[in-house]
C-alpha cells in the first residue's frame, strides 16, 4: 500500500469508506453506494433503453432530459437503500468523461451540488476506469493486469502496471465493437440494440460466411472494424440486388467470429508480452456470448487468469464508478467544484499520481 | 421546529438559461449578493464555486437558507439543465422548498427595470432560438408607485416589484410572426387602452430589425418602441421566486424540471411519422 493510501486511511480513522457514485455518461442514470471500493451496498440503474428503441439509437437530448427527471430520486433511493446516513458518506464520485457531454453534465451538476450540500469531497472519475474497476467488485485485481475494454463507444487494450495506473496500448482506429455490432445488426434487419441479436443469430447458425480478419500491422494492438463492417454491408447489398434471401445467421456468425478472433488474439498476446497476471474483460460487449466463451476457452488453454464481472457491472452502472473512485481516494486525489463534462477525457491522464507528475 | 429561530426569508437564486450566469442571495427582498456574469458557456464549471462565493460573501450558512429560486428557462437546453439540476439537488439535499421561475419573466423584469420607463408597458422578452425563432412571451407592466409608507429606508431598501402581468405563456415562436401577432393585438385596442411603450428585452440585437417593424405594423410612434439588451438578473429570479415561495407556489425538489417549451427534434420526427 502506498504512503498516500495509508495517510488517507489515517485521515478516515481507519473507518470504512463509503462512496456515493453517479453515472450519467450515456443513456443509463445510475447511482450506487460502494463500501471500501469493493462491496456494493446499492446500485440503482434507470435504463432508458425502451425510450431509445423507438429512435433506433441513443438520442443525446432525450437522454439528458431523462437524467434530469430521475437523478435526485435515484440519489434519495440509493441513500435510503444503502442504510448509510448522508453524513456518513466519505465522498461523492461522478463520471467526468468520456461520454455525451449534455448527459455527463446532469450527473456532474448533481454530484457537485450534493458534495457541496453535505460538505463532502468530490471525485471526478473516468468512465473506462470504472469499467475496468468493475472487476474489483468481484475480487482483488492482480497487477500487472491487462484490461480488454469492449463497449458501444470503446474498444481498448489497457495495460495496468499497478493500481490506478493506466496505459492504453491499443484502441480502435474507427468504429467501437458495440457500434459495429449495431450497424451490422441494422443491415441484417435486427432492431436496436442489435448486439444481442447478432450474438444470438451467430451462435445459432450452422456455418459462417467467410469474412476477413483485420490484424493491422505486425505487433499492433489497435483495432479497425470499419472494413469488416463494410464487407458485411456489401454482402447484404449483393444478396439484395440478386433478389436472394440474406443469410443473416451465416453473416452474423462470420462477423462475430472475425471480431472475436482478433479481440481474443490481441488480448492474449498483450498478456504474454507484458507478463500480466490477470486479464480483465469489461464493458457492455462483455455480455456477448461468443466473446465470453471463446475468451474463457483460450484463457483456460493458455493458463491465463481471466476476470469477467457479472452483467450488471459490465453495462454502464455507478457501482463501477464508485470502485474506481475509491482508488483515487486512497491515493489522496480528489477533484474541486470546477470540474465539467469531458467528452474526450484521457484515461492515462486520470492515472493516480499523474496530476503530480505534470 | 428548530428552524423557527432562524431567518426564514433568505433565498438563493440561480439562472443559467442564457449566456449569462446569474446568482443572487436575497433576504426580505433585499439583495445581499448578486452576480450576473457573461460566462460564455462555462456555467457548468463556475456555477457551484459562484454559489459558494455568494453564500460566504452574504454571510449565509447554506443550512440557514429558507428556499431556492431557479430559472427553469426556456433557453439553452443544456444551460437550463445546469441550474435546474443544481437547484433540485440542493433543494433535496438541504431539504428546502424550491420555486420554479420563468427565465423570461425574470428577464422581462430586468429589462423593464433597466429601461427606466414610466408608464404602461408591454414587455416582450427574447432569447434567441435560431432559425429566426426566439423563446418569448408577452407581459404588461406599470412602473412601481413611489412608496410613501417607508420614506426613511436605507439604501439597502427592498426592491419594489414592477407589477408584471403575464399575457401569454412562454413559447418558442418565429419572431417575424410573433411581431405581427403583437401588432394585431395592439391594433385591436382603442387608443386609450394601448400601452405607452412596447419594450423588447433580452437578446434584442439578433432580432432588432424584425421587431422594430412593429411601429409601422401597429401604427405606433417610433419612440414608443424600445429595445433593452439584458439577461435575467439574479435578483429578479430571487424576487419572483420569493413571492412564489411566500404564496406556497413551491415545487417538490424531485418534480422540478426545465421548461423546454417543445419536445426534442427526434420526438417531433417520431410523432410526424404516420
Ligand atoms: Zn460504458
Helical proportion of chain B?
A: 25-40%
CATH homologous superfamily of the largest domain in chain A? ATPase, nucleotide binding domain
What class would the helix/strand composition of chain A place it in?
alpha/beta
Oligomer: heterodimer
Query: What's the helix count of chain A?
Result: 13
Q: Outline the low-pLDDT stretches of chain A.
A: none
- What pair of chains forms the biggest interface? A-B, 34 and 33 residues
**β-strand amount of chain B:** 15-25%
**Coarse morphology of chain B:** globular
Structurally, the number of domains of chain A stands at 2
CATH topology of the largest domain in chain A: Nucleotidyltransferase, domain 5
Query: Termini of chain A, distance in Å?
Result: 23 Å
**Alpha carbon gap, first and last residue of chain B:** 57 Å
Helix content of chain A: 40-55%
Strand order of the largest sheet of chain A: 3-2-1-4-5
Shape of chain A: globular
The largest sheet of chain A, given as strand count, sense and whether it forms a barrel, is: 5 strands, mixed
Q: How many strands of chain A?
A: 10
